[in-house]
Known about the structure:
This protein is an alpha/beta fold.
Amino acid sequence: xxxxxxxxxxxxxxxxxxxxxxxxxxxxxxxxxxxxxxxxxxxxxxxxxxxxxxxxxxxxxxxxxxxxxxxxxxxxxxxxxxxxxxxxxxxxxxxxxxxxxxxxxxxxxxxxxxxxxxxxxxxxxxxxxxxxxxxxxxxxxxxxxxxxxxxxxxxxxxxxxxxxxxxxxxxxxxxxxxxxxxxxxxxxxxxxxxxxxxxxxxxxx
Length: 205
């Protein structure tokens, strides 16, 4: 079972993102912590996404309360959920892909809560296509979808991205140095439009 060490770590966080490239130690710790956790997986196939949740029922080597190496048993993080971000250059935010994920999650008897990443392969890495993805998600919820519980938007003060220059003084303030983002004005407009369309529906969903 989880030790005091892991419970102490859990108190430091409210929500985590587990990425594909994290170390095995990070993966194991997230299986014990009892708070929101999104599992980001780059594969489009629903069965791969379900597998991410199922492996949370796990035994692994960790530290006990005395700091000794021991076998840690965990029944998994009950608040884990998947994130659809597309993969292999193809999107998976559409209603068909969401339904496929829902069916696979239901069949495996794991959480059917889904978050959709509006960036990455879901926008073909074009940040300014993200508002179109948001509109599609809005339409799905208006049409009765119950599984979509959150969205991820890559946003910054200024739109686009920049490489890190040799002279850091040349960095442009407020612009991403990683993935391209939409600017704040575009972000605000898109989210306010989504809120206006869904504010009568979400409270009773």
